[in-house]
Amino acid sequence: MLPLQDTVASRFPPFVVWCLIGACVLGFLHQTSLPPRELEAFLYRHALVPARFSGALPAASPGGWSAFLTNMFLHGGWLHLILNMWTLWIFGPAVEDRLGAVRFLAFYLVCGIAAGLAHVLANPASTVPALGASGAIAGVIGCYARLFPAARLVMVVPILFIPFFFEVRAIGFALIWFLMQIVPGLLTLGQEGDSGGTAWWAHIGGFLAGWLLAPFVRRARRVYRPYYRDEGMYGFLPDGRRSGGGGPWG
Question: In the CATH scheme, what is the code of domain 2-189+199-231?
Answer without folding.
Answer: 1.20.1540.10
